[in-house]
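tool_call: predict_structure(chain=1)
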Amino acid sequence: MIRINLLPHREEKRKARREQFFALIGLVVVLAGAIWFLGFTAINRYITVQETKNAYIEREIESLKKEIAAIAKLKEETDALLKRKQVIETLQGSRAETTRMFDELLRRVPDGIRLVNFVQNGMQFDLSGESVSEARVSSLMRSLEESPLFQQVNMLEIRAANALNGRPIYTFLMRMAIERAAPAAADTKNPAKKSAGDKP
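tool_result:
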C-alpha cells in the first residue's frame, strides 16, 4: 500500500491563495490611492482656478469701485460748477435788472416828488417818498402802471404832513412787483448771434 502525503501540496495552495489575496488587496489599495490622488489633484486644481477667478473678479470690482468714486467726485464737481454758474448768471441778471429798474423808475418820477426809500422783499418792492400834492402821487402811480417793467402797483398809504420848513407835503408808501425779462429776450437782442444760428 502506497501513502502520498498531500499536506505540503495543500499548504502551498493555501500560501499561493494568500499571496494572491494580499496582491489583490495591494492592487485595490494602489488603485484607490491613485483614484484619490487624481481626485484630490483635480479638486485642488479646480479650487486654484476658482480662487484665481475670484481674485480677478475682486480686482475688477475694486477697480470699478475706484472708477465709480471718481465719476461721483466728477459729478459733484460738475454740479458745484453748475451751481456757481447759475449763481453768477443770477447775480449778473440781477445787476442788469436793478440798473434797468432804477433807470425806469427815475424816468417815471414826475417833478414835485422826492423818493425817500426803496425796499425789496422778494419779488415785491416798497417805494416811499414825499410829494407836494396828491395829484403828483396819482401821476406817479399812473406812470408806473404804464411801465412794462412794473406790475401790480398799489398804494398802501398816503397822508398829509409838514416838511422841515413847515410847508405841507404828502408822504406815501406804495408797493409794486417787477416783471422779469424772459430768457429768450437775450437772444432777440443779439441779432448777430441769431443770424449766425439761422445759417443752414
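agent: Helices lie at 7-108, 134-146, 184-188, 191-198. Proceeding to next step.
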